[in-house]
Amino acid sequence: AGVTVITADAIARSGAADIVQALETLGGVHIRKISGNPSLSEVSLRGFGETSHGRVLVLVNGERLNNLDLAAPNLLRIPFGSIERIEVLHGPQAVLHGDSAVAGVINVVTHPGSGEASTTVSATVGSQHTRGAAVTASAPLDDTARYAVDAGWLRSDGWRENSGYETRDIRATLNADWNERFSSSLSLFYNQADYGMPGDLTRAQMRANPKQSDTPRDTFDSESWGLAFGHALLVGEEGRLALDFTASRRLTDSDNDYTAWGYWMYYSGTLDSFALSPSYSDRYRIAGLDNRLTLGIDARFDTLAMAYTYNPQIPLWGISNKRFDLDRLSLAGYAENETFFSETLSLVLGGRADRIRNEPNVNNAGLRDVTSTESALSAALLYRPTRQVKAFARAA
To answer: What pTM was computed for the model?
Structure first.
């Protein structure tokens, strides 16, 4: 695929204050900003516009940030000072990564800690009373283990009325190389964010004052935390067996002022996610040709609970309190094989199958469960005449 990598050094040289600004430095990566709030920014790849939030998969060390309720991933949930590199994979990646990877994948890799103790402190100041601070510390614990801790805070009044935001995050990572062939990692994170929702404007309002807001009291709050736990074992000369587990919880609250229509709406949601992903990759030789094989299983369970409360309730208008719950269980298997015809020419074939079960519930009234099987196929022919040049044709 077409892959672009932004290193920590390149981010530092760019002067970017957050991950959204870092991504904006790349060609072919477009950012859709709502009211200038990076918490509401959406990454658009391959021409997808308003539906881009469901077409680009965002990962942090392999953990999915895309939400079951189709809300765009909060990119400010990633501690900016902890980034080691950002990998952008352009084009369909559904075989290895499943849903949400139709247009591409953005994988953020954080610092694993270093063999020497170091501490970095930074501050950010900008227009609209934007200010922030971050601290990153890492050090070895002994000959086998090392840690890294990152904390950040960012706040801005925003360009429009009621477009201000504030976010706080912290992430702690522990890595251990038990021997030359076996390693483990544990990462814990916490993020809290709140921001105003200025809403849309008519054409006449835009001409009169584009900074105004029709919803000056609408707010949104989010709080999330979780962990990622992984093991990697080298098998044989080039084989790698990995087992990754992630768990997270996200809480959201929103207040929406509809007093012009006679009511307020309050929204709250809870999303719990658990994923287990074993994988294996190795090289082998058949019919005189070298091959590289990747096999994996993705097991995931998500449970979403949403509640809408109206004050006052007006059943005649259809405005009444509602509760919606959804449990989703998915099990997927995938395989991808690359055959090397020469040092410069290779063929990649891959396939994936997902079995997904959805159990919805509205106002405690049972709804029909929906079970489906989804599949993905891909093929690519790659030509690498030099280290600096790669040409490929890909279908998915």
So the answer is: 0.90
Cis peptide before 210 (omega within 30 of 0): no
Beta strand 365-366 pairing with 30-34? unpaired
For residue 351, what are the β-bridge partners? 335, 377
Q: Is 97 in contact with 58 (CB distance < 8 Å)?
A: no
Own/partner pairs, 206-210, CB within 8 angstroms, 24+ separation: 210/160
- pLDDT tens digit string along 288-340? 999 999 999 999 999 999 999 999 988 878 888 999 999 999 999 999 999 99
CA contacts within 13 A on the Cβ side of 194? 7
Q: Which of 163, 171, 210 lies closest to 187, judged by CA?
A: 171
Residue 38 has pLDDT above 80, yes or no: no
Question: How do beta strands 104-110 and 56-60 pair?
Answer: parallel
Residue 359 phi, psi (nearest 5): -120, 95
Q: Quote the radius of gyration of the chain (alpha carbons, Å).
A: 23
User: Which secondary-structure segment (H or E) carries 10?
Assistant: helix 8-14
From CA 229, how far away is CA 222, in angstroms rounded?
Answer: 24
